[in-house]
Design a protein that fits this description.
This protein is of the alpha/beta class and about 280 residues long. It has a single domain, classed as TIM Barrel (Alpha-Beta Barrel). The chain contains ten helices and eleven strands. Strands 1, 2, 3, 10 and 11 form a five-stranded parallel sheet that branches. Strands 4-5-7-6 form a four-stranded mixed sheet, with helices on one face. Strand 6 and strand 7 form a beta hairpin. Helix 4 packs parallel to helix 5. The longest helix has 19 residues. The chain is globular. The relative contact order is 0.19.
């Protein structure tokens, strides 16, 4: 079975866990490593003849348009990660609309292609912000990959559907949702296939989880960030659990990803869902 691979293109200092110590207005002051890190990801994917969907932050695309062109020219799909990585449930609906419009315009002007997919910063479409799906549909997006069917301090809808499905938006129509993969164990959903979860777990466990979903008839979705293969990134003063989540096993992640790519089949969300 072909599984979906997604790359959230943002820099190490743009993560939600750092928003209290790195203000949006100060982003330009930080050393950017997103171009080199993303090119390292591209090289890895080329080595395994694997395509992916790249959810690119509009702010990043605006400053590094050649990187977006490079991703697109190599046959990967381009999707939106919003413009400024602001949590959806902290925005008013019209501010959210402006954010996704701006980001999409930037991406489409750079590539000349149409952007049909969206992922919210830190999976922040939750019970508090389901209204965002209606706006995505109104703005012409065909799919979303923002809902995480778990309990978490920053995101998640614990009782959400776990696999690809269509969400009925009434008169507005419907939007396809590709939720982040979880395993159902002892009556609860456990994350395993992306971010800090993937970095923390042994490769064998991650592969077992993906193969289990495949055996049940469902493709998995793996998500990574380019900074997650950069152990030499400048250290931010992230404390406690946030620091652990961000920095755990950065030095081992590239090898783990290569292990996954050598044993499992991946492609873009668009191919897996059927948008081509």
């Amino acid at each position: 079975m072909v599984n979906a691979l997604s790359i959230d293109v943002e820099d190490y200092f743009q993560v939600s866990a750092a928003e209290d110590i790195v203000r949006y207005e100060e982003w330009d002051r930080y050393e950017s490593r997103v171009v080199e890190n993303t090119r390292n990801v591209l090289g890895m994917l080329e080595g395994f003849n694997t395509k992916a969907t790249f959810f690119i932050l509009g702010w990043t695309a605006e400053r590094f348009p050649e990187l977006v062109k490079e991703i697109y020219s190599q046959g990967h799909k381009i999707a939106s990660h919003g413009y400024r990585h602001q949590l959806v449930y902290e925005q008013e609906p019209e501010l959210f609309r402006e954010d996704i419009r701006k980001a999409r315009r930037i991406l489409e002007e750079i590539t000349g292609g149409k952007v049909i997919g969206y992922r919210a910063p830190s999976f922040s479409i939750t019970d508090k912000s389901l209204w965002a799906l209606e706006i995505l549909k109104e703005e012409g997006f065909l799919y979303d990959s923002s809902i995480f069917p778990i309990r978490h301090d920053r995101y998640g809808i614990a009782d959400a559907k776990r696999f690809i499905h269509k969400i009925d938006l009434g008169e507005r129509g419907e939007v396809v949702e590709f939720p982040i993969s979880t395993l159902r164990i002892f009556g609860a959903n456990f994350p395993f296939a992306g971010g800090g979860y993937l970095r923390l777990l042994p490769a064998g466990v991650v592969k077992w989880g993906i193969k289990r979903l495949n055996k049940e008839g469902h493709p998995a979705i793996v998500y990574i960030h380019p900074w997650e293969i950069d152990p030499d990134q400048p250290r931010l003063k992230l404390r406690g659990l946030s620091g652990f989540r961000h920095y755990v096993n950065l030095s081992r992640n590239a090898a783990k990803l290569k292990n996954l790519f050598s044993d499992l089949k991946f492609s873009s969300i668009e191919e897996v869902v059927g948008f081509g």
